[in-house]
């Protein structure tokens, strides 16, 4: 019946597709940004436990540990190994004068635990060479705009000249800064020297021990804050949600998208029903039961909902397919969880939109069909 | 014992009353109507606008509850049925033809004609096939898949007639079936109605203003001010 009114049919599909696109777009970008808050944690695959000062709440802002803390962690029963990790944000400059603040991660000199494993050019093992760094591709493009990826280029960091020995595919950080890996002993010199510079201790549990159990033991023995990698990533997400305006900004857009979807589709669907009351009256007169009329209305609502949702999701997937190719927006994708969640929301929207129509049809006297 | 040669009452109304509103705003649409429509006959219900014709056929068809009196269709007092049973009774026993055709715009001619069968749970293919053969008998064999918007008024009314007949109901109620048609088309539709709807086991009640088609009636009930004033037996 609804397809007979082309304008309203297309209007409904457009409203739901628009709503779906906006919701999936905004929730996925939000999730992508939140995921970036812990992307450097996820990139470390050699250690499952992060140990930090109890005052450290999230990855970006750290209170330094004492050098002896590394030894204390190593002394906890169940620690297979534990290594230090430096994290700082010095300025990196090129010989052509380009510069940018960078996230420098100083990894254990002996084991190189925490080194980037996804390399586009060069090798992370070459970090053993003196004055060597590995930079991520996005950082390279930022510092050497328009130039091909090449090794052996130099960067100046706090009066230290370093060579690029590898280009990694590190996950995008929250702040869009270059990600630079270096050995711990060299990385600490890229910033003005402080008494203690160790940001984290990375640890792996001995075989048979879970990371959660190890975090419990480390906290119990050392008094330091120990988190599994997954817990620490969620700590970062929660910190940004609680302490920034990001959720409010996205929340407003998401609420508007939901409201527009509900109001436009609800109103259009209701108008369609009101304009077709005579047809519903005919069906009632003919002997179509209320149950079947409700099924018809719901089926029509679900059909336009499904078509609109599919179109909106298609548009959303296309959008993220395009933006995924760009360095600045890499890693922000349409998550299946978002698509499913928005699908459930759209289902509720079309059901809500059809409820008013159902009520109107149920109270309709079939005798109305003889009037005018 | 029922006499085989005597027409049987399909519709029997006794003292039917219907009023709308309360107090000073109360309107008496039907004031003790006595009316009968017999099987095998085309019964016309005529009268000026506002005399209660539409209210009476709405009550007869079970689309509107009466305020008082009895309505029997084929010996069944429909007021005593539950709403669900009234719906099922209508589905099995009644067919409708409306002034404005009221076809579903998104369905083709044959799908429109098949609606009562679909409502009764007949499989779609079978329902549409039966509707198509009926439409062909009504002269629409070349317009089976046409949408209502592509049909002329006379063609739409023939589709509506097919919809009223397809499930072989025992009573067909027509509300001003020729009012929206020119004389020639109205005449053609009435010929089809008289030729295909009238059947020994079926009654047809037609509400009309159109005195150009009165000659099709077997009996004419004249209404005024909510009452049947007199009945003419024509054939």
Q: Could you explain the architecture of this structure?
A:
Chain A is α+β, with helices and mostly antiparallel strands and 372 residues long. Chain A folds into two domains: 2-37 and 245-370, no CATH class; 39-243, no CATH class. Helices cover 49% and strands 17% of the residues of chain A. Chain A has eleven helices and twelve strands. In chain A, strands 1, 2, 3, 4, 5, 6, 7, 8, 9, 10, 11 and 12 form a twelve-stranded mixed sheet that branches. In chain A, helix 1 (6-36) packs antiparallel against helix 8 (246-275) and helix 1 crosses helix 10 (290-323). The longest helix of chain A is centred in the C-terminal third of the chain and has 34 residues, at 290-323. The radius of gyration of chain A is 29 Å and the shape is elongated. The model of chain A has no long low-confidence stretch (mean pLDDT 89). Chain B has 235 residues and is of the alpha/beta class. Chain B has a single domain, classed as Rossmann fold, CATH 3.40.50. Chain B is 31% helix and 28% strand. Chain B has helices spanning 53-60, 83-93, 109-119, 124-137, 153-165, 183-197, and strands spanning 9-20, 27-38, 42-46, 68-73, 76-77, 94-97, 171-175, 203-208, 219-224, 227-233. In chain B, the strands form two sheets. Chain B has a six-stranded mixed sheet with strand order 6-7-8-3-9-10. A four-stranded antiparallel sheet of chain B has the order 2-1-4-5, with helices on one face. In chain B, helix 5 (153-165) packs parallel to helix 6. The two termini of chain B are 25 Å apart. The model of chain B has no long low-confidence stretch (mean pLDDT 89). The chains are: A alpha+beta (372), B alpha/beta (235). At the A-B interface, helix 9 of A face helix 1, helix 2 and helix 3 of B.
Task: Sum up the structure in keywords.
heterodimer, A: alpha+beta, 2 domains, twelve-stranded mixed beta sheet, 11 helices, 12 strands, 17% strand, B: 235 residues, Rossmann fold, six-stranded mixed beta sheet, four-stranded antiparallel beta sheet, 6 helices, 28% strand
